[in-house]
Design goal:
This is 2-oxoglutarate ferredoxin oxidoreductase, alpha subunit. InterPro entries: PFOR_II, Pyruvate:ferred/Flavod_OxRd, Pyrv_Fd/Flavodoxin_OxRdtase_N, THDP-binding, Transketo_C/PFOR_II. Keywords: Oxidoreductase. One of its GO terms (molecular function) is oxidoreductase activity. This protein is α/β, with parallel strands linked by helices. The protein has 2 domains: 182 residues, Thiamin diphosphate (ThDP)-binding fold, Pyr/PP domains (Rossmann fold), CATH 3.40.50; 101 residues, Rossmann fold. Helices cover 35% and strands 22% of the residues. The chain contains 13 helices and 15 strands. The strands form 3 sheets. Strands 2, 3, 4, 5, 6, 7, 8 and 13 form an 8-stranded mixed beta sheet that branches. Strands 10-12-11-14-15 form a 5-stranded mixed beta sheet, sandwiched between helices. A two-stranded antiparallel ribbon has the order 1-9. Helix 1 packs across helix 2, helix 1 packs parallel to helix 7 and helix 3 packs parallel to helix 5. The longest helix is centred in the middle third of the chain and has 18 residues. The protein is globular, with a radius of gyration of 21 Å.
Length: 372
């Protein structure tokens, strides 16, 4: 059974977190993500959950990590400036393999920018905001329905891969209202738990899928947690072999299982002359432009990314290989365009806005890509 609700994107994210089993939220109010904190404060206590307003975003992600280590599915929500403050502890969660979800409602500009206007400038921050080599999972909803669906998926992926997962929305999607179908129950994934003799447990010994099993703090199993390089028992180590093995496993446990992540969606002919690559709110304009192009008798396809990181290179190159034109549409100076070119599509170019305005279908149609 499902029920239909007329929701904002932020509301859909919140309801999705609760449906996925999240029972802890720690955050700090920040536009345009504040509604997630407000609704979490209202709803979590009704589900035997906990809401805490922290003093800042640094404390927020730290509290989320602690709650997750204690056995709760936990999340936070923020926007650009707060996302920057969270980066050190996101790196800690990567290294310590702590499942959690961070919803980043992107807004315009560097620093404080414009708090209420949209942007898509946090793409590379999501990938490389925390230092050193690592992998990360980042999902990008393009509708209010996907705010629900992909937030549920984010919690499942966090538990499956024992890693932080980022949901990248934006100020427009966050405050857009659309009809959302919410099922009575959703598919949920729980982190793998240890079994067997307590004395044999090693907290970072990988299972068959390269992800270690994870007890709760307070269980009989000893869970050592550190941001330092550590061996399988959780003890810090400066051994080069230990360091290389650990970092490569942290990367490979995600990068070698990308078939489990939400695939891009392609709409268009089998061999399009023009391919548009986009995500989030900008993808909606791309799809509208493609529909109009079809009415004009032009061959155009759209790749809409749902997983931004890891970057779905093979999917993109398979479709774009025979296209005469490839256009990457995004509200930044071309952050994902660089990835498309690095994948070997060197003739790709960008259609970009960096002035708070969303990209419109007319701009895509008039931007040269469809003109002879």
């Amino acid at each position: 059974m499902t029920n239909m609700q007329f929701l904002q994107g932020n509301e859909a994210c919140t309801l999705a977190g609760i449906a996925a089993g999240a029972r802890f939220f720690a955050g700090y109010p920040i536009s345009p993500a504040t509604e997630i904190a407000e609704l979490s404060a209202k709803l979590l206590p009704r589900h035997d959950g906990i809401y805490i307003q922290m003093e800042d975003e640094i404390a927020s992600i730290a509290a989320v990590i602690g709650a997750s280590l204690g056995g709760m599915k936990a999340f936070t929500a923020t926007s650009g400036p707060g996302f920057s403050l969270m980066q050190e502890n996101i790196g800690f969660a990567v290294m310590a393999e702590v499942p959690c979800v961070i919803i980043n409602v992107q807004r315009f500009g560097p620093s404080t920018g414009i708090a209420t206007q949209p942007g898509q400038g946090d793409i590379m921050t999501a990938r490389w905001g925390t230092h050193s080599d690592h992998s990360i999972v980042a999902l990008a909803p393009a509708s209010v329905q996907e705010c629900f669906d992909l937030t549920v998926e984010a919690f499942n992926l966090a538990e499956r891969f024992r890693t932080p997962v980022i949901v990248l929305t934006d100020a427009t999607i966050a405050h857009l209202r659309e009809t959302v179908s919410i099922p009575d129950t959703v598919k949920t994934v729980q982190r793998a738990r240890p079994s067997g003799p307590v004395e044999n447990y090693r907290p970072y010994a990988p299972a068959a899928n390269q992800v270690p099993v994870m007890p709760n703090y307070g269980d009989d199993y000893i869970l050592r947690v550190t941001g330092l390089v550590h061996d399988e028992a959780g003890y810090s180590s400066a051994d080069p072999e230990v360091a290389g093995t650990l970092v490569n496993r942290l990367i490979n446990k995600i990068e070698k299982y990308t078939d489990e992540l939400p695939e891009p969606e392609y709409a268009g002919p089998d061999r399009p002359e023009t391919v548009i690559i986009s995500y989030g709110i900008s993808a909606r304009a791309a799809l509208s432009a493609a529909r109009r192009a079809k009415q004009q008798g032009r061959s155009m396809g759209v790749i809409r990314l749902r997983t931004i990181w890891p970057f779905p290179e093979k999917f993109i190159t398979d479709i774009c290989r025979s296209a005469a034109r490839v256009l990457v549409v995004e509200m930044n100076k071309g952050q994902l365009l660089r990835e498309v070119r690095a994948a070997g599509i060197t003739e790709a170019y960008g259609l970009n806005r960096t002035d708070t305005r969303v990209i419109m279908p007319e701009e895509i149609l008039e931007g040269g890509v469809l003109l002879e």
